[in-house]
Amino acid sequence: MYDRYIFRQNSRQRWLSAPRLSSSKKAVIIYVPIPQQKVFQKSQIILVRELEKKFSGKHVVVIGERKILPKPTRKARNPLKQKRPRSRTLTAVYDAILEDLVFPAEIVGKRIRVKLDGSQLVKVHLDKNQQTTIEHKVDTFTSVYNYSYCRAVSVHHKKVIEILSYRILIFYMSWRT
Question: Which family, according to UniProt (predicted)?
């Protein structure tokens, strides 16, 4: 189910895993420590392209290795000595992972649709400028995020102007009534 590899670059260890997303699709996920992620992102596009050539038929995705801290409770045996940072909350970590997943593109909008049965679908709108670069990977993004984090997500491309005009229209309609 999971194939794990260790990838060495600059004498640091990077973890690779290759989950089987469906019967025909596979993806390679590279987990990078957060302090080194900014440096890694500078060469990420070239490295991903070379790794996709090496692992033929598989898409390569780079995700930062983040940690979620539990919500502090009053009855905890070992209360945390410091307040939990906002970047370690569940929502912040999932949002940051989603940004890492679609890295060359920027997220310009996000909608959360809650269905009657309580399930949630996150609709993510990416910048239209990067559409040609990552359009073939959109299915992989949704599958990896759903498989790894058990959250449904759908990825679409929109222009920033379309989203801004939609927000202005909503504001105008709410102000008018």
Answer: Belongs to the eukaryotic ribosomal protein eS7 family.
